[in-house]
């Protein structure tokens, strides 16, 4: 059943209350430490001390005071955060109380509010096998709430996935360095492997990329529930599977493991920090672990 405008507003408010509290109490400080600015900005002028770099002497202040003074700089904290959000059909799957879409939405909200706590800009790219929507980076609570509203109510035009598309788009649209979170189940077609690796290589040299993989435990292994019909949410392909067969379950688990390793190895190769979060896990713990390892 299609959600009404009122339903969406209620969910936005509920997510805001939960995730804004998390970002304030837990993540804002850790986010500040994990993702630092790159530039240097002027902070103050103080008297020269032995060992200071003479190139930093402020000659105007020195002349007025008749004592040597230097300019002190500090790291420029303001950042731009980009959220690359997978809106393909596979995100709607969920065998637990929460679907992958629910978890992705909450994590995106926590990250966005954490960035806002640090006065950073936040932008968003929704993608399937193409760019579905681009929200340019801005500051402010109303902007964050608009992103959350879009995360909840956005209806993509395509069901498929192509991860190289948003990463290539990011490189083209953001010329300055930014911190980028890729929120996806990373169920990417093999046909996109080479283009994805090429896009990661280019984007990784310009931006700080972080992968957050959200998956459902039933995607990793099948339960023994007899003969069932499975359907691929993106292609629509259906197949009957005998889950009572231990060989079938083992083959399914092995294929999942192999597919996971290919994606994770590609991310590791380009030194992209990654967190894996199941829909039945506490994403708070995993995000804290991710921030600590940086």
Record field, number of beta strands: 10
| Shape designation | elongated
- Structure classification: alpha/beta
Low-confidence stretches: none
Helix-strand pattern, N to C?
Answer: HEHEEHEEHHEHEHEEHEH
What is the CA-CA span between the terminal residues?
A: 42 Å
> Count of helices?
9
**Overall residue-averaged pLDDT value:** 86
Main sheet: strands, sense, barrel? 6 strands, mixed
What is the radius of gyration computed over CA atoms, rounded to a whole number of angstroms? 23 Å
Instruction: Tell me the helix content.
Output: 40-55%
Provide an overview of this structure:
44% of the residues lie in helices and 23% in strands. With 294 residues, the chain is of the alpha/beta class. α3 (100-117) links the parallel β3 and β4 (121-127). α1 (5-34) packs parallel to α9 (283-292). The two termini are 42 Å apart. The model has no long low-confidence stretch (mean pLDDT 86).
């Amino acid at each position: 059943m299609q959600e009404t405008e009122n339903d969406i507003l209620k969910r936005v408010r509920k997510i805001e209350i939960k995730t804004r509290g998390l970002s304030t109490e837990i993540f804002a400080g850790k986010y500040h430490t994990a993702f630092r600015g790159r530039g240097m900005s002027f902070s103050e002028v103080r008297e020269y001390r032995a060992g200071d770099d003479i190139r930093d002497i402020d000659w105007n202040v020195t002349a007025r005071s008749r004592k040597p003074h230097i300019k002190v700089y500090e790291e420029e904290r303001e950042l731009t955060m980009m959220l690359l959000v997978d809106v393909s059909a596979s995100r709607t799957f969920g065998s637990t109380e929460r679907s992958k879409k629910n978890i992705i939405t909450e994590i995106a909200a926590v990250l966005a509010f954490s960035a806002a706590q640090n006065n950073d800009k936040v932008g968003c790219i929704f993608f399937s096998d193409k760019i579905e929507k681009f929200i340019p980076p801005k500051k402010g609570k109303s902007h964050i709430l608009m992103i959350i509203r879009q995360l909840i109510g956005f209806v993509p035009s395509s069901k498929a996935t192509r991860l190289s598309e948003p990463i290539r788009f990011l490189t083209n649209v953001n010329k300055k360095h930014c911190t980028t979170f890729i929120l996806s189940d990373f169920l990417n077609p093999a046909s996109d492997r080479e283009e994805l690796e090429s896009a990661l290589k280019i984007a990784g040299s310009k931006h700080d990329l972080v992968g957050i993989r959200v998956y459902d435990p039933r995607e990793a292994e099948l339960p023994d529930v007899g003969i069932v019909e499975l359907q691929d949410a993106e292609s629509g392909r259906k197949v009957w599977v005998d889950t009572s067969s231990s060989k079938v379950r083992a083959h399914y688990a092995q294929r999942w493991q192999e597919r996971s390793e290919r994606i994770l190895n590609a991310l590791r190769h380009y030194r992209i920090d990654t967190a894996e979060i199941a829909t039945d896990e506490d994403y708070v713990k995993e995000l804290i672990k991710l921030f600590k390892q940086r």
